[in-house]
Structures are given as structure tokens and as C-alpha cells.
């Protein structure tokens, strides 16, 4: 019916108009109390001139810049140093790796409140990966905190203490955060935390991780942020992802708070193209105004007894809708009751056939997506590294259109067996089942299923009661609105969050929702639908492939130069080289199963090639035994700020670094034990081990970023990002080994 179609268009137009875009970046002349991206971005340019891994000269320059800017703002800051040992299980190269910081330097600034009820901490990290300048991650969050502090200082004195915390060595294993929670003078244990991150190169800033009892913080975001964006399905999903940030450590130590990030343009993440020139001012503006709004609300509030409980929440018409998670199950029960009423008299066989057809659509959509993905990704080196394209907008849009056309053709072909009404009712059964399952297992992720099931049930009941032009309009609105508000935003978010390689999750969700819509109006004739869908499938696919974006950069494999000082031999390794690729010097790469002879325990399938032996000095190592404990002192003879220790032949029972004992038990794995020490000082480090009986041997190596310039004149070129095996990306290592006493 035209009236029903009009209702759907009204809903879609309402979404577009009712969800305003974030305020464009404000200029340097913006009001002093407002956040200005133009005032913030110079900070990004200042600290993101070059990679700044912890311990590097650029890293020290960034720390000095922070101290200078805070001093200009009149905010006293101190540098908290410490040694940290920690572990994260299996490394990216297959070994049982640990990561430690010999000297981590956290910058902490404090603005006292007038009558503090609880401290508020704005947190981000100021180091980057060795692979790129880290303009977005985390140059933008650093700039956001500095500009937020400036804007807050322009207003009246605030009630609660405010801490600005810039952690060290986040990229090296959350080491600065580990040192932070061990030092109550740096971060009070009751501080409310807003951690600011960037995982990509653009998009709105959203909460993607929450602390315990954080529902009230979502309420503050909804009330005070000028353009809030949030979805509890994101925070629910993040709990099952392997990603870690400083907030992971803070949350585990009981801190309440939010973890904020933006997600789009994944291929700028941890890469050489994450430069200051690539930073989007509108993205900076949205993150900044969100953080400033939260900070203003928190430093002014009474935080002595914040409400308990978590929330289910989503963005609709430019606002965040939120309710306590205790309502999740009752809403799912209501959806079950509504669906039961809608199914009354429908015939269970017809409904079952409709449910099977509704389930078949996402299955076929996934198959179609997986089949079409290689057409869009062929020749894109960035896809192999990230599972995403530099710009996946066109390709993903084509997949969505193909999914919709597939659904139309499938529904038309099955119409002799399944009427549109039973197709929609069968889909409603599936959505209601998902609503119940998620309400019980994943409360934060239940809202798209529950509200869609409620809308679908209400639409079916209305049409069964009376079918007129008016009821068809209302029925179309009832089912289309929750789909448009809760499902479509999630469909569009998934490729940004997961990458184009997992676009099948988005097309499956869309395919599951589409059968709900035809119940509100009669479908066109089957033959017409099939003909249109078939022609459009071919046309859209051809258009999508032709419009695929150009590859982000010319393929260039990474190279790792490894010198064994004991044998005076050297080797090229590459984790990303393809067939026909050559090292900077010498013959082509050969296949290899791993690099266990150089890095004990590494099982990554490196390609190898012989390399000229350069007279690079080995680390200086000394070992001594005191009872069952062995102390190893090591320093780099060539100024490297990264050391690694591999122990074989005897199991490590526990370890400490420069007197700081690891608070994570060592593995029972009898394989090689691996520890990487970041930010090693020139005088070296002292590692103390307790070993089980056995004939132990230690390999010690140092690592510097970049391959030897005399062998690789292009080593300063932009290389691939540090995704996959970052320890092995464009670096020089020198190793030596000896038996333990």
C-alpha cells in the first residue's frame, strides 16, 4: 500500500533529520569555555612527528611536551616512575611471552576541588607503537585531555578533585596502568575514571567498555553530552573480545568509569599512515566535547554514593535512550506474550515454514557475502593485515543492497508455500527467541531484539484486528521504527567495529530483519520481483567491484634483521613477505616453519633468507646464582631500549624485574619462557628467576626499530602496520646466549 510505504519513509526521514550530525570542528576563536578542535590539533602535530614507543627519544620528548603544556595551564604535574612485570599468555609469534617495563613514566596532574567527594580521573596513554606516529592512537586523546583541562580552567572552581593521567607503555602491555594502580599516590583507588582511546581514524566517540555499576555514568552522558552516541551491545560484545586497554587494568582494580573511543577507518590503526595530517578535526571535536561534558558533570556532582546497577542503552533521534538492566527480562517476557497473541490462529505449520524461510535468508546472505568479499578485496594489501579496506563504504553498501534483493527474490520464489504474513510471523518468532536468549545471557545486547520483537508483535496484532489504510500505516511504523532505530545502526556499526572481513555479521542481521517488514503491506507480483532482483544483483555487483577503492599503499613486506653474535651469522625474517618478495639485500625469501633457532618458542611461519653479518655488538650479560634463584643482568651495548630474555631447559617458577615481582603466576608450560622488557635504561636491567630443576640456558637479545640502513636504504619508507607480528616488524635484533649457573 502506498500509505504503508509512506509511513516507512517517514520513519527513515525522521531518523535522518532527528539524528543531527556532530558539531563541525570549532575554530581557534571559539568561546573559551567550549572545546575547540582547532586549539587541540596542534598538540597532535607536536607529539606525533614520529613513532614514540616507550623508552625512545620521541617518547621522552612527548613527555616533556606534556609537562610544559600542563605548566602553562598552571596545573602542577609529577612523573611517577616504576618497574612492572606482567603477562598476557601466548604472544603474537606463538611463544609464551611476557612484557615488562623496566622504567615506566606516568604523568599525573591534579587540580584540587573545593569540597571533593571523590576524585575524577581523565586517562589516556602518550606512547605509540613502533609502527607509526600514533596521531590518532593516542595523540588525539592526549590533545583532547589538554584542551579539556584548558576549557575547565575557564569556568568556576569545581567541587571534586580532577586528575589528568597520561600513562606510559600502554602499547607495550598496559605497563603504565599496572604501575598506576600499584601507586595510590598517583591514582586514588576510589577515583572515577574516564579513559580516552582511539581505534582507527574517525567516527563518533562511543563508550565501548564500562566499569562496575556504570549505569549512572551512561545517564550523565545522555544528559550532558551535546551529541551523545552509545550502544550497550558494543560494551557487551567487547567483554568477549581479546582487545585490552589501560581501562582493563583499572576496571579489574575496582575503578568505576567509562572507556571511550572512535572506531572508523581501522586501517589507520597502529600503522605508518596514522599521521597528524590524517586526523579528522570533526572526530576530534566530537571526542573533545563528549569528554568535556562528562568531566564537567563529574567534577560538579556528589560522588559519595552513586547509584548502583548497569544500563541497556542505545542512540535514537540524537539522544541516548537508557534503562536499568533489571528491566531487560520483563521486556523480553512482554515480547513473548505479544508474539504469542500475534500467533494465535495463524497455524503452527504455516508459521514454522515462515520461520524456516526467515532463517534461510541470513544463511544465504552470509554465503553471498563470503563469496562476494574476495571480489572487493583482491589486490588490497591492507585487507590481509587488518581484515578491512581503507574505505569499505561502497563495498559494504553493495553487500547491503544485495542482501535486500536476495530477500525479495527468496520471498517471491517461496510465496506458493509461504504467504508474506506467515513469513513475517516466522521471523517474529526468531526475533522473540533471540530477545529471550540475549536478555538472559547478554542483557546489554538484548535491546535490538526485544524492541524489534515488541514492534513486530504490535504490528501483527494491529493488522489482525482491522486492516485499513490507517492501520497499515500504523502497522508499518510500528515494525519499521524499532528496526530503523535499534537494528540498522548496529548493522552499519559492525563493519566499522569488526572490519569488512566480518561484514557477514551485518548482512545476516539485516537479512533477519527484512522479513518482518512485508506484513504491513502486500508484496508485488513474484515474477516482477524476481526479474528486478536478478537484474539488480548483476548490476549492483558489477558497480560495486568497479567502484572498489584503490589499495591504500603499495605492497611492501616487513623485514627483521637478526644477528647471532655467538655464531657471527645473520638472517632476514619476514612475517608478511609473499612469494617473489626479496629482502633488502640478498636472495629471495624461502619458506620456513618458524624461527625457533633464533627466538626459542616462536612458531610464526616466517620466511627466511641469509643476511650479511654486520659487526653489531651483542648485549652485555652477566649471570649468577644464589641458592635456587638466578640473577641475570643485561644491558644493550648499542643503545637499544628494548631487551628480551628466553629461558630454555628449565621451567621458570617466578620472576622479578629490578626488584618488582610479577603478580601473575608463571605458566606451567614446559616450553621456552619469554620476557620482553620495554623502556630499558642505558645501565641495563636485573632479572631474577626461580627455576625448577634442569639445565637452563638463556638467550638475551636487544631490539631497535628499523633495519640497518647500510643494508636497507629504503628502511625509512612507510611500511605496513604492526598488525600480526609487531615484534618482528622492521627491526634489528642482536642476540647472544649462555648456560645458566
Walk me through this protein's architecture.
There is one protein chain. This protein has helices spanning 2-18, 37-47, 57-72, 135-153, 175-181, 215-224, 232-238, 246-252, 281-300, 328-343, 348-377, 381-386, 393-414, 420-441, 447-465, 469-498, 504-513, 526-546, and strands spanning 77-90, 96-111, 120-125, 162-167, 192-196, 206-210, 257-261, 311-316, 319-324, 560-564, 569-574, 607-611, 620-626, 629-635, 642-648, 652-657, 660-661, 673-678, 685-691, 697-705, 731-739. The strands form 3 sheets. Strands 1, 2, 3, 4, 5, 6, 7, 10, 11, 12, 15, 18, 20 and 21 form a 14-stranded mixed sheet that branches. It has 3 domains: 3-16 and 326-547, no CATH class; 36-81 and 105-304, Zn peptidases (Aminopeptidase); 560-739, Sandwich (Immunoglobulin-like), CATH 2.60.40.730. 55% of the residues are buried. Strand 10 and strand 11 form a beta hairpin. By secondary structure, it is of the alpha+beta class. Helix 11 (348-377) runs antiparallel to helix 13 and helix 14 runs antiparallel to helix 15. The chain is built from 18 helices and 21 strands. The model is unreliable at 89-94, 551-555 and 716-725 (pLDDT under 50). The chain crosses the membrane at residues 327-348, 355-375, 395-413, 425-442, 473-492, 498-517, 529-548. This is Peptidase M28 domain-containing protein. Residues 701-741 are annotated as: Disordered. InterPro entries: M28_fam, Peptidase_M28. Keywords: Membrane, Transmembrane, Transmembrane helix.
Amino acid at each position: 500500500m502506498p500509505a504503508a510505504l509512506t509511513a516507512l519513509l517517514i520513519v527513515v526521514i525522521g531518523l535522518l533529520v532527528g539524528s543531527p550530525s556532530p558539531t563541525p570542528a570549532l575554530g581557534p576563536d571559539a568561546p573559551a569555555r567550549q572545546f575547540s578542535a582547532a586549539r587541540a590539533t596542534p598538540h597532535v602535530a607536536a607529539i606525533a612527528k614520529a613513532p614514540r614507543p616507550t623508552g625512545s627519544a620521541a617518547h621522552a620528548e612527548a613527555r616533556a611536551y606534556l609537562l610544559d603544556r600542563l605548566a602553562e595551564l598552571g596545573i602542577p604535574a609529577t612523573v611517577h616512575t616504576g618497574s612492572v612485570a606482567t603477562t598476557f599468555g601466548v604472544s603474537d609469534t606463538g611463544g609464551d611471552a611476557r612484557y615488562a617495563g623496566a622504567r615506566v613514566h606516568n604523568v599525573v596532574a591534579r587540580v584540587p576541588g573545593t569540597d571533593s567527594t571523590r576524585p575524577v580521573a581523565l586517562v589516556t596513554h602518550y606512547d605509540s607503537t613502533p609502527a607509526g606516529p600514533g596521531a590518532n592512537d593516542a595523540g588525539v586523546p592526549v590533545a583532547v585531555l589538554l584542551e579539556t583541562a584548558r576549557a575547565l580552567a575557564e569556568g568556576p572552581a569545581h567541587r571534586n578533585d580532577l586528575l589528568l593521567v597520561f600513562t606510559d607503555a600502554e602499547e607495550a602491555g598496559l605497563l603504565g596502568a599496572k604501575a598506576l594502580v600499584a601507586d595510590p599516590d598517583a591514582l586514588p583507588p576510589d577515583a572515577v575514571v574516564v579513559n580516552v582511546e582511539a581505534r582507527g581514524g574517525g567516527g563518533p566517540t562511543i563508550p565501548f567498555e564500562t566499569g562496575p555499576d556504570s549505569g549512572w555514568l551512561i545517564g550523565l552522558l545522555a544528559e550532558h553530552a551535546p551529541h551523545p552516541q552509545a550502544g550497550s551491545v558494543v560494551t557487551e560484545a567487547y567483554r568477549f573480545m581479546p582487545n585490552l586497554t589501560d581501562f582493563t587494568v583499572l576496571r579489574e582494580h575496582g575503578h568505576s568509569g567509562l572507556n571511550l573511543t572512535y572506531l572508523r577507518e581501522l586501517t589507520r590503526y597502529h600503522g605508518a599512515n596514522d599521521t597528524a595530517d590524517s586526523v579528522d578535526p570533526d572526530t576530534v571535536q566530537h571526542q573533545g566535547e563528549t569528554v568535556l561534558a562528562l568531566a564537567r558533570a563529574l567534577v560538579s556532582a556528589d560522588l559519595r554514593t552513586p547509584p548502583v546497577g548497569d544500563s541497556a542503552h542505545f542512540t535514537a533521534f540524537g539522544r541516548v535512550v537508557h534503562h536499568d538492566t533489571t528491566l531487560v527480562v520483563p521486556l523480553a517476557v512482554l515480547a513473548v506474550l505479544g508474539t504469542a497473541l500475534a500467533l494465535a490462529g495463524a497455524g503452527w505449520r504455516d508459521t514454522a515454514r515462515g520461520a524456516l524461510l526467515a532463517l534461510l535468508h541470513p544463511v544465504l546472505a552470509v554465503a553471498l557475502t563470503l563469496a562476494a568479499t574476495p571480489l572487493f578485496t583482491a589486490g588490497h594489501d591492507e585487507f590481509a593485515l587488518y581484515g578491512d579496506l581503507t574505505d569499505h563504504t561502497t563495498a559494504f553498501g553493495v553487500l547491503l543492497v544485495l542482501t535486500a534483493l536476495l530477500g525479495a527474490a527468496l520471498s517471491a520464489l517461496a510465496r506458493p508455500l509461504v504467504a508474506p504474513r506467515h513469513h513475517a510471523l516466522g521471523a517474529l518468532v526468531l526475533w522473540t527467541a533471540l530477545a529471550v536468549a540475549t536478555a538472559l545471557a547478554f542483557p546489554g545486547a538484548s535491546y535490538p531484539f526485544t524492541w524489534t520483537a515488541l514492534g513486530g508483535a504490535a504490528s501483527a496484532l494491529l493488522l489482525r484486528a482491522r486492516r485499513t489504510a490507517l492501520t497499515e500505516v500504523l502497522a508499518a511504523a510500528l515494525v519499521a521504527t524499532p528496526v530503523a532505530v535499534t537494528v540498522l545502526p548496529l548493522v552499519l556499526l559492525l563493519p566499522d567495529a569488526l572490519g569488512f572481513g566480518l561484514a557477514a555479521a551485518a548482512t545476516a542481521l539485516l537479512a533477519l530483519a527484512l522479513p518482518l517488514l512485508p506484513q504491513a503491506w502486500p508484496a508485488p507480483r513474484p515474477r516482477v520481483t524476481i526479474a528486478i532482483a536478478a537484474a539488480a544483483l548483476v548490476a549492483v555487483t558489477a558497480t560495486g567491484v568497479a567502484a572498489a577503492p584503490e589499495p591504500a599503499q603499495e605492497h611492501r613486506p616487513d623485514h627483521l634483521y637478526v644477528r647471532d653474535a655467538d655464531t657471527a651469522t645473520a638472517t632476514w625474517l619476514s612475517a608478511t613477505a609473499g612469494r617473489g618478495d626479496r629482502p633488502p639485500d640478498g636472495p629471495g625469501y624461502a619458506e620456513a616453519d618458524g624461527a625457533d633457532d633464533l627466538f626459542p618458542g616462536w612458531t610464526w611461519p616466517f620466511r627466511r633468507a641469509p643476511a650479511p653479518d654486520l659487526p653489531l655488538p651483542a648485549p652485555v650479560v652477566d649471570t649468577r646464582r644464589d641458592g635456587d634463584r638466578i640473577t641475570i643482568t643485561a644491558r644493550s651495548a648499542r643503545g637499544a631500549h628494548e631487551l628480551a630474555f628466553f629461558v630454555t631447559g628449565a621451567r621458570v617458577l617466578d620472576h622479578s624485574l629490578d626488584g618488582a615481582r610479577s603478580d601473575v603466576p608463571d605458566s606451567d608450560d614446559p616450553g621456552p619462557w619469554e620476557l620482553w622488557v620495554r623502556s630499558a635504561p642505558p645501565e641495563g636491567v636485573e632479572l631474577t628467576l626461580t627455576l625448577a630443576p634442569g639445565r637452563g640456558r638463556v638467550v638475551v637479545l636487544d631490539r631497535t626499530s628499523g633495519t640497518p640502513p647500510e643494508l636497507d636504504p629504503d628502511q625509512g619508507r612507510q611500511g605496513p602496520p604492526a598488525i600480526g607480528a609487531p615484534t618482528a616488524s622492521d627491526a634489528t635484533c642482536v642476540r647472544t646466549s649462555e648456560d645458566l649457573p
